[in-house]
Amino acid sequence: xxAQVLSTVAPIVAIVAxxxxxxxxxxxxxxxxxGGLVLKxxxxxxxxxxxxxxxxxxxxxxxxxxxxxxxxxxxALIGILVLKAAGLPLHTYLPPMLSGNSGNMGLPVxxxxxxxxxxxxxxxxxxxxxxxxxxxxxxxTAGRFSFRILAxxxxxxxxxxxxxxLKMEAQVPAWITQTAALLGGLVIPGMLxxxxxxxxxxxxxxxxxxxxxxLLRLGASTVAASAVIAAxxxxxxxxxxxFLMAAMPxxxxxxxxxxxxxxxxxxxASVIVVSTTLxxxxxxxxxxxxxxxxxxx
Length: 297
Known about the structure:
The protein is built from 14 helices and no strands. It has 297 residues and is mostly helical. The longest helix is centred in the middle third of the chain and has 41 residues.
């Protein structure tokens, strides 16, 4: 167990640390370009490659997507109750509560913990999170919904294409899957380097609020994930992946939206830094717990 935990956590921490060191040393790290490559090319390719190569069952992918939606809804409910009681504005503080950093951290953690099967399950979860972030998260922060933002995400078009191919049991030419695998290889290291670079540049200006929001996010998500695992009867890798994906820290996309609409981006940056640092510190324990869930359910 200890060796598996270390083999999962160490590569993630090492790559994040490289990104952090590069940011602190002033390396010319073009986050916008790298992020664009990862989001526009790498992520759709990874989705296609992982789901097609592993022969994913559409029903299982759907279960993971529904689980992600259920965890998000539960976190939203808990967030609304706590934030209203604390007198904090929902348009600023609710979006960070909705979902975790399933891309930058969730995918690599699940891939290292559970292998290719875990990666395919995590992608099923991630698809819902990506859609919810660019619809619900955007709408709450902006005060309005924009279909155009969602329509700009290539992964939205890959989802129905893969679903159709899986349903038809189509045989995709090897050169296509190999090309997708190569492009998809950009995603995990690219996301982790971006995360480390962001941590080097973001500043904590309100530690107390950052800690409070981080603990609220982690507590709400793990409680919600546990309830969803029990309610849906998840077991094995499915249960472990749902738990890990839910437990991830506040994603950076929330700061982007906060900057766009003037929703206290400096405060949200503080929450992201503290939340990510807390999760990295707790990652060995979270992975160990997920592995136990995988073994005993």
